[in-house]
Write a structure and sequence with these properties.
With 139 residues, this protein is α/β, with parallel strands linked by helices. The chain is built from seven helices and five strands, in the order βααβαβαβαβαα. Pfam families: MGS.
Length: 139
């Protein structure tokens, strides 16, 4: 499974703690992240993460491009709802793309934990079918 981590500045420590808590689960997956979030996770875990640019510099859009091509399976995006973000249009676009492509998206730790528990149980097998039979493929 391809999993992306994104966290606003005031949520980065929470993301690191979450990654530490579920490190054994994440070790078995292909991981992606925006720049600083990925750096902080890798400094505190043994996880290997493909890092994109920082969110405000285009990292959200780089992950969004993978979502648009249905190449992402799960996104954990710890947003700070109390702080205005200068790249809010990019964030909204990413959320919209997840809805369009049916990509599970957690925007808080409670939802992230539910999704990771489902991942541990193997409840994401349907994503393998999505990759195997992409829309537009002949049957």
């Amino acid at each position: 499974m391809k999993i992306a981590f994104i966290a606003h500045d005031r949520k980065k420590e929470e993301m690191v703690n979450f990654a530490i808590a579920y490190e054994k689960t994440f070790l078995h997956h292909e991981l992606y992240s925006t720049g600083t979030t990925g750096k902080k996770i890798m400094q505190n875990t043994d996880l290997k993460i493909h890092r994109f640019m920082s969110g405000p510099l285009g990292g959200d859009q780089q992950i969004g491009a993978m979502v648009a091509k249905n190449e992402m399976d799960l996104i954990i995006f710890l947003r700070d709802p109390l702080m205005a973000q200068p790249h809010e249009p990019d964030i909204i676009a990413l959320l919209r793309l997840c809805d369009v492509q049916g990509i599970p998206l957690a925007t808080n730790v409670a939802t992230a934990e539910i999704l990771v528990k489902a991942l541990e149980r193997g409840d994401f097998a349907w994503r393998e079918l999505v990759h195997k039979y992409k829309p537009g493929d002949s049957e």
